[in-house]
DNA sequence: GCGACAG
DNA sequence: ATCTTGTCGC
């Protein structure tokens, strides 16, 4: 798909903050999409020895949730892991997956926070705004905000608050299993985000994220194996 | 200054 | 995230 003019990814934390502040005004906190026919899930993995970040973007038909496409890509690691700057580490390789895609999914689920971020610009918002597509953030743990534990029953949730503002929801996707943290990314309301995540969850982690996670691990292992091939190749040629 | 801190 | 074996529980 076509990409808009992007900002640099080779930045200092101070520049990263400036970028987050600038992009923050572009977030659409309301539903802005037509009927959902496809949903996507992305996840990123790292191979430190090769300084590579790899990603898997899985596209599903909706609501039947059949896998209709799997796209992989890898890029050099360009940024360290620093809380609140996750996007600068993971977005580059996610975008390279989208460059290989003709049509983006109607909704994209990311493994991390969206609006539930100190500057309201978590991973899901960053990807959503840059590609201008509907996104939802679903994280396994909290970055910021206060909340009361929701009831143990699947479907129950409580709101995540920060500085007097609702920034997301703590949602139970399974009975008696630790909740997930849902927040909007772009062009989706929080209520819709909660409903969709619940609808796409069979186990604790929503299917798009779960499948993307297994796919990226498969892909990363393939790259690790090819490393052995490369080494033997050099050996065979006496390099 | 100290503690917290998505993946 | 990644490194790693067995093990407790539905």
Anisotropy-based shape: globular
Q: CATH H-level name... which superfamily?
A: archaeoglobus fulgidus dsm 4304 superfamily
What is the total domain count?
Answer: 1
The computed structural class is alpha+beta
Sequence of strands across the biggest β-sheet: 3-2-1-4-5-8-7-6
Biggest beta sheet summary: 8 strands, mixed
Strand content: 15-25%
DSSP helical segment count? 5
CATH fold-level assignment = archaeoglobus fulgidus dsm 4304 fold
Q: Give the tally of β-strands.
A: 8
Low-confidence stretches: 231-239
SSE ordering: HEEEHEHEEEEHH
User: What is the distance, rounded to the nearest whole angstrom, between the alpha carbons of the first and last residues?
Assistant: 40 Å
- Average pLDDT: 94
Helical amount = 25-40%
Known CATH architecture: 2-Layer Sandwich
Class in CATH? Alpha Beta
Rg, alpha carbons: 18 Å
Write the layout of secondary structure elements.
Elements: H1 13-24, E1 38-47, E2 52-61, E3 67-76, H2 86-99, E4 107-110, H3 123-131, E5 135-139, E6 157-162, E7 165-171, E8 180-186, H4 190-199, H5 207-236
The chain binds two DNA strands through residues 43-48, 81-84, 86, 89-90, 111-113, 116-117, 122-123, 137, 139-144, 181.
Model description:
By secondary structure, the chain is α+β, with helices and mostly antiparallel strands. The chain has one domain (33-225): archaeoglobus fulgidus dsm 4304 superfamily (archaeoglobus fulgidus dsm 4304 fold, 2-Layer Sandwich), CATH 3.30.2170.10. It contains five helices and eight strands, in the order αβββαβαββββαα. An eight-stranded mixed beta sheet has the order 3-2-1-4-5-8-7-6, with helices on both faces. The longest helix is centred in the C-terminal third of the chain and has 30 residues, at 207-236. It is globular and about 45 Å long. The structure holds two DNA strands.
């Amino acid at each position: 798909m076509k990409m808009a003019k992007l900002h640099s990814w080779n930045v200092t934390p101070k520049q990263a903050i400036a970028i987050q502040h600038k992009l923050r005004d572009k977030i659409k906190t309301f539903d802005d999409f037509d009927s959902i026919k496809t949903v996507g899930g992305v996840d990123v993995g790292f191979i430190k020895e090769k300084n590579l970040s790899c990603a898997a973007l899985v596209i599903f038909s909706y609501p039947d949730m059949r896998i209709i496409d799997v796209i992989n890509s890898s890029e050099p690691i360009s940024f360290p892991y620093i809380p609140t700057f996750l996007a600068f580490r993971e977005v580059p390789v996610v975008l390279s997956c989208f460059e290989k895609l003709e049509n983006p999914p109607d909704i994209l689920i990311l493994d991390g926070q969206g609006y539930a971020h100190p500057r309201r610009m978590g991973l899901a918002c960053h990807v959503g705004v840059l590609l201008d597509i509907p996104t939802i953030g679903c994280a396994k743990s909290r970055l910021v905000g206060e909340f009361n534990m929701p009831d143990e029953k699947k479907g129950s949730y409580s709101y995540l608050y920060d500085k007097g503002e609702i920034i997301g929801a703590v949602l139970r996707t399974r009975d008696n299993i630790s909740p997930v943290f849902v927040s909007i990314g772009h062009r989706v309301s929080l209520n819709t985000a909660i409903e969709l995540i619940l609808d796409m969850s069979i186990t604790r982690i929503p299917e798009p994220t779960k499948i993307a996670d297994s796919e990226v691990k498969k892909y990363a292992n393939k790259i690790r194996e090819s490393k052995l091939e490369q080494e033997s190749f050099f050996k065979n040629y006496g390099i």
